[in-house]
Protein backbone atom coordinates (compact mmCIF):
# COMPACT_ATOMS: atom_id res chain seq x y z
CA UNK A 1 0.00 0.00 0.00
CA UNK A 2 1.54 3.37 -1.02
CA UNK A 3 2.02 6.12 1.56
CA UNK A 4 2.65 9.84 1.22
CA UNK A 5 4.63 11.69 3.90
CA UNK A 6 4.41 15.49 4.09
CA UNK A 7 6.69 17.59 6.30
CA UNK A 8 5.76 21.26 6.63
CA UNK A 9 7.91 23.65 8.69
CA UNK A 10 6.63 27.04 9.84
CA UNK A 11 7.95 29.37 12.59
CA UNK A 12 10.30 26.76 14.01
CA UNK A 13 7.64 24.03 14.22
CA UNK A 14 7.41 21.03 11.93
CA UNK A 15 4.05 19.40 11.20
CA UNK A 16 4.13 15.93 9.68
CA UNK A 17 1.23 14.18 7.97
CA UNK A 18 1.22 10.56 6.82
CA UNK A 19 -1.49 9.71 4.29
CA UNK A 20 -2.63 6.45 2.73
CA UNK A 21 -4.87 6.59 -0.32
CA UNK A 22 -5.68 10.20 0.49
CA UNK A 23 -6.66 9.49 4.11
CA UNK A 24 -4.72 10.98 7.01
CA UNK A 25 -3.47 8.11 9.19
CA UNK A 26 -0.80 9.74 11.39
CA UNK A 27 -0.06 13.34 12.38
CA UNK A 28 2.72 14.89 14.48
CA UNK A 29 3.82 18.31 15.65
CA UNK A 30 7.45 18.95 16.56
CA UNK A 31 8.93 22.22 17.78
CA UNK A 32 12.49 23.13 16.75
CA UNK A 33 13.68 21.20 19.80
CA UNK A 34 11.46 18.12 19.85
CA UNK A 35 9.17 17.99 22.86
CA UNK A 36 9.18 14.19 22.80
CA UNK A 37 12.03 12.37 24.51
CA UNK A 38 10.91 8.82 23.67
CA UNK A 39 13.89 6.76 22.56
CA UNK A 40 16.46 9.13 24.07
CA UNK A 41 19.24 7.66 26.22
CA UNK A 42 20.29 9.43 29.41
CA UNK A 43 22.98 8.95 31.99
CA UNK A 44 20.77 9.42 35.03
CA UNK A 45 21.30 9.52 38.77
CA UNK A 46 19.16 7.45 41.11
CA UNK A 47 17.39 9.84 43.49
CA UNK A 48 15.63 7.19 45.57
CA UNK A 49 14.76 3.49 45.50
CA UNK A 50 11.31 2.41 46.67
CA UNK A 51 11.38 -1.34 47.05
CA UNK A 52 7.75 -1.51 48.14
CA UNK A 53 6.76 0.21 44.88
CA UNK A 54 9.25 -1.84 42.89
CA UNK A 55 10.77 1.20 41.24
CA UNK A 56 13.46 3.86 41.43
CA UNK A 57 13.12 7.54 40.64
CA UNK A 58 15.94 8.74 38.41
CA UNK A 59 17.10 12.27 37.72
CA UNK A 60 17.67 12.63 33.97
CA UNK A 61 17.66 16.40 33.54
CA UNK A 62 13.93 16.87 32.88
CA UNK A 63 11.46 18.74 35.08
CA UNK A 64 10.32 15.55 36.80
CA UNK A 65 12.33 12.50 37.77
CA UNK A 66 11.82 9.43 35.63
CA UNK A 67 10.16 6.22 36.84
CA UNK A 68 12.38 3.13 36.50
CA UNK A 69 11.02 -0.34 37.40
CA UNK A 70 13.43 -2.39 39.48
CA UNK A 71 12.59 -5.56 37.60
CA UNK A 72 12.26 -5.71 33.85
CA UNK A 73 11.95 -8.44 31.25
CA UNK A 74 13.47 -11.78 32.17
CA UNK A 75 15.84 -11.72 29.18
CA UNK A 76 17.37 -8.48 30.52
CA UNK A 77 17.48 -9.62 34.14
CA UNK A 78 19.28 -12.84 33.21
CA UNK A 79 21.97 -10.89 31.35
CA UNK A 80 22.38 -7.83 33.62
CA UNK A 81 25.04 -8.07 36.32
CA UNK A 82 24.83 -4.61 37.80
CA UNK A 83 23.27 -5.67 41.09
CA UNK A 84 20.61 -3.75 43.00
CA UNK A 85 20.17 -0.04 42.31
CA UNK A 86 21.40 2.35 45.00
CA UNK A 87 20.67 5.98 45.76
CA UNK A 88 23.20 8.25 44.04
CA UNK A 89 24.20 5.62 41.50
CA UNK A 90 24.69 6.60 37.85
CA UNK A 91 22.60 4.51 35.46
CA UNK A 92 22.12 4.50 31.67
CA UNK A 93 18.42 4.52 30.83
CA UNK A 94 16.13 4.93 27.83
CA UNK A 95 12.78 6.74 27.76
CA UNK A 96 9.85 4.47 26.85
CA UNK A 97 7.04 6.95 27.54
CA UNK A 98 7.05 10.74 27.57
CA UNK A 99 6.28 12.65 30.80
CA UNK A 100 2.57 13.39 31.11
CA UNK A 101 0.77 15.52 33.65
CA UNK A 102 2.15 14.79 37.10
CA UNK A 103 3.99 11.69 35.87
CA UNK A 104 7.63 11.71 34.87
CA UNK A 105 9.07 9.78 31.95
CA UNK A 106 8.82 5.99 32.06
CA UNK A 107 12.34 4.54 31.84
CA UNK A 108 14.05 1.26 31.11
CA UNK A 109 17.57 -0.13 31.34
CA UNK A 110 16.78 -2.64 28.59
CA UNK A 111 17.98 -0.42 25.74
CA UNK A 112 16.51 -0.78 22.22
CA UNK A 113 18.10 0.76 19.12
CA UNK A 114 15.65 0.52 16.18
CA UNK A 115 16.52 0.20 12.50
CA UNK A 116 14.64 -0.53 9.30
CA UNK A 117 15.24 -4.25 9.47
CA UNK A 118 15.77 -5.05 13.13
CA UNK A 119 15.70 -3.83 16.72
CA UNK A 120 19.04 -4.22 18.49
CA UNK A 121 18.98 -4.84 22.26
CA UNK A 122 22.52 -4.63 23.66
CA UNK A 123 21.64 -5.55 27.26
CA UNK A 124 19.98 -8.90 26.64
CA UNK A 125 20.32 -11.99 24.45
CA UNK A 126 16.73 -12.46 23.35
CA UNK A 127 16.12 -13.45 19.71
CA UNK A 128 12.64 -12.62 18.48
CA UNK A 129 10.65 -11.67 15.40
CA UNK A 130 8.13 -8.96 14.61
CA UNK A 131 4.44 -9.72 15.23
CA UNK A 132 3.92 -9.05 11.50
CA UNK A 133 5.83 -12.23 10.71
CA UNK A 134 2.83 -14.54 11.01
CA UNK A 135 3.95 -17.60 9.01
CA UNK A 136 5.84 -20.27 11.00
CA UNK A 137 8.44 -20.84 8.28
CA UNK A 138 9.12 -17.10 7.99
CA UNK A 139 9.38 -16.77 11.77
CA UNK A 140 11.91 -19.60 11.92
CA UNK A 141 13.96 -18.03 9.11
CA UNK A 142 13.87 -14.60 10.79
CA UNK A 143 14.90 -16.00 14.17
CA UNK A 144 17.80 -17.90 12.57
CA UNK A 145 18.86 -14.71 10.79
CA UNK A 146 18.80 -12.78 14.06
CA UNK A 147 20.96 -15.32 15.86
CA UNK A 148 23.44 -15.33 13.00
CA UNK A 149 23.67 -11.52 12.96
CA UNK A 150 24.01 -11.18 16.73
CA UNK A 151 26.71 -13.81 17.25
CA UNK A 152 25.80 -13.71 20.95
CA UNK A 153 26.83 -10.03 21.16
CA UNK A 154 23.33 -8.62 21.63
CA UNK A 155 19.64 -9.44 21.51
CA UNK A 156 17.60 -8.71 18.41
CA UNK A 157 14.05 -8.58 17.07
CA UNK A 158 13.95 -9.12 13.31
CA UNK A 159 11.40 -7.01 11.47
CA UNK A 160 9.23 -8.26 8.62
CA UNK A 161 11.11 -6.05 6.13
CA UNK A 162 14.31 -8.05 6.73
CA UNK A 163 12.80 -11.11 5.05
CA UNK A 164 12.65 -9.37 1.67
CA UNK A 165 15.87 -7.36 2.03
CA UNK A 166 19.35 -8.29 0.87
CA UNK A 167 21.35 -10.10 3.54
CA UNK A 168 24.24 -7.64 3.24
CA UNK A 169 21.90 -4.69 3.88
CA UNK A 170 20.56 -6.27 7.06
CA UNK A 171 24.09 -7.16 8.16
CA UNK A 172 25.26 -3.59 7.51
CA UNK A 173 22.44 -2.18 9.62
CA UNK A 174 23.18 -4.58 12.48
CA UNK A 175 26.86 -3.58 12.45
CA UNK A 176 25.99 0.13 12.35
CA UNK A 177 23.59 -0.18 15.28
CA UNK A 178 26.17 -2.14 17.28
CA UNK A 179 28.85 0.47 16.61
CA UNK A 180 26.40 3.19 17.65
CA UNK A 181 25.82 1.37 20.92
CA UNK A 182 29.53 0.96 21.63
CA UNK A 183 30.05 4.70 21.06
CA UNK A 184 27.12 5.60 23.36
CA UNK A 185 28.32 3.21 26.04
CA UNK A 186 31.85 4.60 25.95
CA UNK A 187 30.64 8.21 26.10
CA UNK A 188 28.26 7.40 28.96
CA UNK A 189 31.10 6.08 31.12
CA UNK A 190 32.71 9.52 31.32
CA UNK A 191 29.48 11.57 31.43
CA UNK A 192 28.43 13.41 34.56
CA UNK A 193 24.76 12.70 35.37
CA UNK A 194 22.26 13.85 34.48
CA UNK A 195 23.34 13.95 30.83
CA UNK A 196 21.83 13.17 27.42
CA UNK A 197 23.77 10.26 25.92
CA UNK A 198 21.84 9.80 22.66
CA UNK A 199 18.94 11.63 21.01
CA UNK A 200 16.39 9.70 18.97
CA UNK A 201 16.04 11.09 15.40
CA UNK A 202 13.15 13.40 14.58
CA UNK A 203 9.75 11.97 13.68
CA UNK A 204 10.23 12.49 9.94
CA UNK A 205 13.29 10.27 9.96
CA UNK A 206 11.59 7.74 12.25
CA UNK A 207 8.54 7.46 9.95
CA UNK A 208 10.74 7.12 6.89
CA UNK A 209 12.74 4.40 8.63
CA UNK A 210 9.62 2.49 9.71
CA UNK A 211 7.69 2.65 6.43
CA UNK A 212 10.21 2.87 3.56
CA UNK A 213 11.46 -0.69 4.03
CA UNK A 214 8.06 -2.32 3.59
CA UNK A 215 5.90 0.17 1.68
CA UNK A 216 6.03 2.42 -1.33
CA UNK A 217 6.69 5.79 0.31
CA UNK A 218 6.82 9.27 -1.23
CA UNK A 219 8.41 11.90 1.05
CA UNK A 220 7.93 15.63 0.52
CA UNK A 221 9.51 18.30 2.71
CA UNK A 222 9.89 22.07 2.47
CA UNK A 223 13.05 21.77 4.58
CA UNK A 224 15.76 20.67 2.14
CA UNK A 225 18.05 19.67 5.02
CA UNK A 226 15.52 17.41 6.74
CA UNK A 227 16.51 14.14 5.04
CA UNK A 228 16.67 12.61 1.54
CA UNK A 229 13.36 13.01 -0.22
CA UNK A 230 11.72 15.40 -2.63
CA UNK A 231 12.33 18.98 -1.58
CA UNK A 232 9.52 21.41 -2.38
CA UNK A 233 9.09 25.13 -1.80
CA UNK A 234 6.90 26.35 1.07
CA UNK A 235 4.31 27.46 -1.49
CA UNK A 236 4.28 24.04 -3.14
CA UNK A 237 3.93 22.40 0.24
CA UNK A 238 0.99 24.66 1.14
CA UNK A 239 -0.74 23.63 -2.09
CA UNK A 240 -0.10 19.92 -1.50
CA UNK A 241 -1.21 20.25 2.15
CA UNK A 242 -4.50 21.82 1.02
CA UNK A 243 -5.00 19.36 -1.84
CA UNK A 244 -4.68 16.44 0.57
CA UNK A 245 -7.16 18.05 2.96
CA UNK A 246 -4.86 17.65 5.94
CA UNK A 247 -6.42 20.40 8.06
CA UNK A 248 -9.96 19.26 7.24
CA UNK A 249 -9.17 15.66 8.18
CA UNK A 250 -7.34 16.81 11.30
CA UNK A 251 -10.34 18.83 12.46
CA UNK A 252 -12.59 15.82 11.92
CA UNK A 253 -10.22 13.68 14.01
CA UNK A 254 -10.70 16.03 16.96
CA UNK A 255 -14.48 15.62 16.88
CA UNK A 256 -16.22 13.30 19.33
CA UNK A 257 -18.56 11.84 16.69
CA UNK A 258 -17.11 10.31 13.52
CA UNK A 259 -19.21 9.15 10.55
CA UNK A 260 -18.65 5.62 9.28
CA UNK A 261 -18.61 5.09 5.49
CA UNK A 262 -21.86 3.44 4.46
CA UNK A 263 -23.77 4.68 7.49
CA UNK A 264 -23.41 4.68 11.24
CA UNK A 265 -21.13 6.62 13.57
CA UNK A 266 -18.34 6.19 16.08
CA UNK A 267 -18.46 8.09 19.38
CA UNK A 268 -14.96 8.39 20.86
CA UNK A 269 -14.26 9.48 24.43
CA UNK A 270 -10.77 9.74 25.95
CA UNK A 271 -10.59 9.37 29.71
CA UNK A 272 -7.76 9.24 32.21
CA UNK A 273 -7.96 5.47 32.69
CA UNK A 274 -9.16 4.32 29.26
CA UNK A 275 -10.70 5.27 25.92
CA UNK A 276 -14.12 4.12 24.73
CA UNK A 277 -15.36 3.80 21.15
CA UNK A 278 -19.11 3.30 20.74
CA UNK A 279 -20.32 1.91 17.39
CA UNK A 280 -23.78 3.16 16.45
CA UNK A 281 -25.86 1.87 13.56
CA UNK A 282 -26.99 4.00 10.67
CA UNK A 283 -30.55 4.67 9.53
CA UNK A 284 -30.29 2.48 6.47
CA UNK A 285 -28.34 -0.73 6.97
CA UNK A 286 -27.99 -3.49 4.42
CA UNK A 287 -26.35 -6.87 4.79
CA UNK A 288 -25.27 -9.65 2.47
CA UNK A 289 -27.53 -12.71 2.22
CA UNK A 290 -27.12 -14.81 5.36
CA UNK A 291 -25.28 -12.02 7.19
CA UNK A 292 -26.82 -10.29 10.21
CA UNK A 293 -27.34 -6.54 10.16
CA UNK A 294 -25.27 -6.14 13.33
CA UNK A 295 -22.31 -7.97 11.78
CA UNK A 296 -22.57 -5.94 8.58
CA UNK A 297 -22.57 -2.66 10.49
CA UNK A 298 -19.67 -3.71 12.73
CA UNK A 299 -17.56 -4.78 9.76
CA UNK A 300 -18.21 -1.40 8.13
CA UNK A 301 -17.06 0.33 11.32
CA UNK A 302 -13.85 -1.67 11.80
CA UNK A 303 -11.74 0.16 9.21
CA UNK A 304 -12.64 3.62 10.46
CA UNK A 305 -12.21 2.58 14.10
CA UNK A 306 -8.69 1.32 13.35
CA UNK A 307 -7.86 4.51 11.46
CA UNK A 308 -9.10 6.72 14.30
CA UNK A 309 -7.13 4.72 16.90
CA UNK A 310 -3.98 5.23 14.86
CA UNK A 311 -4.59 8.85 13.82
CA UNK A 312 -5.61 9.99 17.30
CA UNK A 313 -2.74 7.97 18.78
CA UNK A 314 -5.07 6.40 21.31
CA UNK A 315 -3.21 4.23 23.78
CA UNK A 316 -3.48 2.29 27.01
CA UNK A 317 -6.79 0.47 27.54
CA UNK A 318 -9.32 0.85 24.72
CA UNK A 319 -12.85 -0.57 24.85
CA UNK A 320 -14.87 -0.82 21.63
CA UNK A 321 -18.62 -1.24 22.10
CA UNK A 322 -19.66 -2.92 18.87
CA UNK A 323 -23.33 -3.49 18.09
CA UNK A 324 -24.50 -6.66 19.85
CA UNK A 325 -24.00 -9.80 17.78
CA UNK A 326 -25.70 -13.16 18.07
CA UNK A 327 -22.83 -15.62 18.00
CA UNK A 328 -19.19 -16.17 18.90
CA UNK A 329 -18.47 -16.80 15.21
CA UNK A 330 -19.60 -13.27 14.35
CA UNK A 331 -17.54 -11.80 17.18
CA UNK A 332 -14.48 -13.73 15.98
CA UNK A 333 -15.04 -12.38 12.47
CA UNK A 334 -15.12 -8.80 13.75
CA UNK A 335 -12.02 -9.32 15.89
CA UNK A 336 -10.12 -10.76 12.91
CA UNK A 337 -11.19 -7.80 10.76
CA UNK A 338 -10.01 -5.32 13.41
CA UNK A 339 -6.69 -7.13 13.73
CA UNK A 340 -6.21 -6.94 9.96
CA UNK A 341 -7.16 -3.24 9.90
CA UNK A 342 -4.48 -2.51 12.53
CA UNK A 343 -1.78 -4.50 10.71
CA UNK A 344 -0.07 -1.44 9.20
CA UNK A 345 0.04 0.45 12.51
CA UNK A 346 3.69 0.76 13.61
CA UNK A 347 2.60 0.99 17.26
CA UNK A 348 1.94 -2.35 18.92
CA UNK A 349 -1.67 -3.23 19.72
CA UNK A 350 -2.98 -6.34 21.47
CA UNK A 351 -6.58 -7.50 21.06
CA UNK A 352 -7.71 -9.26 24.22
CA UNK A 353 -11.08 -10.31 22.84
CA UNK A 354 -14.65 -9.63 23.90
CA UNK A 355 -15.44 -9.25 27.58
CA UNK A 356 -18.42 -10.90 29.29
CA UNK A 357 -20.30 -7.66 28.68
CA UNK A 358 -19.66 -7.88 24.94
CA UNK A 359 -17.00 -5.14 24.76
CA UNK A 360 -13.90 -5.56 22.61
CA UNK A 361 -10.96 -5.07 24.96
CA UNK A 362 -7.61 -4.01 23.51
CA UNK A 363 -4.44 -2.26 24.54
CA UNK A 364 -2.10 -0.09 22.49
CA UNK A 365 1.40 0.89 23.48
CA UNK A 366 1.64 4.39 24.93
CA UNK A 367 4.61 6.58 24.00
CA UNK A 368 3.59 10.10 22.96
CA UNK A 369 0.54 12.18 23.82
CA UNK A 370 -2.66 11.53 21.90
CA UNK A 371 -3.70 13.84 19.07
CA UNK A 372 -6.20 15.53 21.41
CA UNK A 373 -3.46 16.59 23.83
CA UNK A 374 -1.08 17.48 20.98
CA UNK A 375 -3.45 19.81 19.14
CA UNK A 376 -5.60 21.26 21.95
CA UNK A 377 -5.25 22.89 25.35
CA UNK A 378 -7.55 23.03 28.40
CA UNK A 379 -10.40 25.52 28.06
CA UNK A 380 -10.14 28.36 30.58
CA UNK A 381 -13.85 29.19 30.24
CA UNK A 382 -15.18 25.89 31.58
CA UNK A 383 -12.85 25.10 34.49
CA UNK A 384 -10.68 23.09 32.07
CA UNK A 385 -13.31 20.41 31.60
CA UNK A 386 -13.16 20.98 27.83
CA UNK A 387 -10.36 21.63 25.37
CA UNK A 388 -9.83 24.16 22.56
CA UNK A 389 -7.78 23.87 19.36
CA UNK A 390 -4.22 25.20 19.31
CA UNK A 391 -3.18 26.54 15.89
Structure, described:
The protein is an alpha+beta fold and 391 residues long. Helix content is 28%, strand content 30%. The protein has helices at 74-79, 136-150, 167-189, 203-212, 234-243, 246-253, 293-311, 328-341, 371-375, and strands spanning 3-10, 13-20, 23-30, 41-50, 55-59, 66-69, 90-97, 106-108, 113-114, 118-121, 127-129, 155-158, 195-198, 217-221, 230-231, 257-259, 265-270, 274-280, 316-321, 349-354, 360-364, 376-378, 387-389. Strands 4, 5, 6, 7, 8 and 13 form a six-stranded antiparallel beta sheet that branches. It has a six-stranded mixed beta sheet with strand order 16-17-18-19-21-20, with helices on one face. Strands 3-2-1-14-15 form a five-stranded mixed beta sheet, with helices on both faces. The two termini are 31 Å apart. The mean pLDDT is 90.
Global structural class: alpha+beta
Largest sheet: 6 strands, antiparallel
Distance between the termini: 31 Å
Report the helical percentage. 25-40%
| DSSP, total strands | 23
Number of helices: 9
Tell me, rounded to a whole number, the average pLDDT: 90
- Contiguous uncertain segments of 5+ residues: none
Percentage beta strand: 25-35%
Amino acid sequence: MPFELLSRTRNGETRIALLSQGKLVEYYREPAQSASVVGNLYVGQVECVLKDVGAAFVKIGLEKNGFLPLREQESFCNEANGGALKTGQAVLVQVKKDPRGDKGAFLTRDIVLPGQYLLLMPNNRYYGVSRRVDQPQDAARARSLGQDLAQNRFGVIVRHAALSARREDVQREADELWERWLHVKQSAQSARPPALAYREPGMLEVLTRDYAARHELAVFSDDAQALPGQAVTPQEMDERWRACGVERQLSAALERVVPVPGGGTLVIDEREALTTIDVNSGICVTAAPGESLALAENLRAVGEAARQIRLRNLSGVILVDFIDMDSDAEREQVQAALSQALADDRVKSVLHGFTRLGLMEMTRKRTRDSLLFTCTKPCAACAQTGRVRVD
